[in-house]
Specification:
316 residues; alpha/beta; Rossmann fold; SH3 type barrels; 2 domains; 7-stranded parallel beta sheet; 5 helices
């Protein structure tokens, strides 16, 4: 499983002081929420588990942010209706208007077809200074009829795996703005894949940016996201993979002559997935006790992400 926080980049920001509104199926655990609303019934139920998972990802990536749970599905229902999604979007606008000193981001990891009128509701949020982040969709095709993915005003997010390769299920088209981790994402007790889980990582990145620059507009937030982006080829569409800050690096040291430092698939694991040598420079992605999560490029140009003992790493 991939920890969402490891993939937003090197930033001390955690989203403190920012609220991420999650429009989704519902929410089973209200602990991290500043409030909630439902199109019908109460927000603290989730017939599909989807909203609970999306919220977990957002909070994992931006643990300092608060969440606003906005349930767009009716009690006990697994059906999603256009009018209900629009009502949920409008509620986020009302909540933000009632809390004028709080910066709000809206995440929508729901998609549908024929929702042609949804853009005016999203445009109203953006006009009110609320960045809106949406999932591109999971059709695996080049399609431009998936809403709100095909709208102009939101930040549309496609999915890549942990090595930055395009996820085969990720919908692609000219209005997909950026991509982020969407494969084997930790959503609590399990790993899940989908652009639904790439979008809240980007929403969390927006929260981190707004913590440090609370007056930024959506275009300014997007420009920060794109500042260190590297293009990923999604079958003819070059979609930027985004990270924040400057990568932290470490030099491999003190490995005995003629030996290699083992890289494992997890902290404390015995499964070796690669090796590094004294003098190699690796990128730091996470820490756990005596272990460091690292990323490096092999001699054959293959990116490896794994765990190594910090004893042999001199952090820069």
């Amino acid at each position: 499983m991939n920890n969402p926080r490891d993939f937003i980049g090197n930033t001390p920001a955690t989203g403190r002081g920012v609220v991420i509104a999650i429009i989704d199926s519902g929410f089973a655990k209200p602990d991290a929420f500043v409030g909630g609303w439902a199109v019908a019934g109460k927000p603290w139920s989730d017939a599909t588990g989807h909203g609970t998972s999306v919220a977990y990802v957002a909070h994992s990536a931006a643990p300092g942010a608060k969440l606003l749970g906005v349930r767009a599905m009716r009690d006990g229902s697994r059906m999603l209706y256009y009018d209900d999604v629009c009502a949920a979007i409008d509620y986020v606008g009302r909540w933000a208007w009632a809390h004028p000193t709080t910066r709000v981001i809206c995440n929508i990891s729901l998609t549908g077809t024929g929702w042609t009128g949804i853009e005016k509701h999203i445009e109203a949020l953006v006009a009110a200074g609320i960045p809106v982040v949406v999932a591109a969709g999971n059709t695996g095709e080049e399609e431009h009829n998936i809403y709100p993915s095909c709208c102009q005003s939101p930040i549309v997010v496609g999915a890549v795996d942990a090595l930055g390769k395009p996820a085969p299920f990720s919908t692609r088209h000219a209005d997909v703005d950026i991509c982020q981790l969407g494969v084997d994402v930790c959503t609590g007790e399990a790993a899940q894949s989908g652009t639904s889980f790439a979008a809240p990582i980007v929403a969390a990145m927006c929260a981190c940016i707004l913590e440090q620059h609370p007056a930024y507009t959506e275009p300014q937030v997007l420009s920060v996201l794109l500042a260190r982006a590297s293009p990923v080829d999604f079958g003819g569409f070059k979609i930027p993979l985004v990270r924040l800050g400057t990568d932290l690096t470490a030099e491999v040291i003190n490995v005995p002559k003629g030996k290699k430092l083992c890289v494992y698939d997890g902290p404390g694991s015995e499964t070796v997935i690669g090796y590094v040598r004294t003098g190699d420079i690796v990128t730091l992605m996470g820490r756990q006790n005596k272990w460091r999560k690292i990323r490096y490029l092999t001699d054959k140009g293959v990116t490896i992400i794994g765990w190594a003992n910090k004893r042999y790493l001199e952090e820069g």
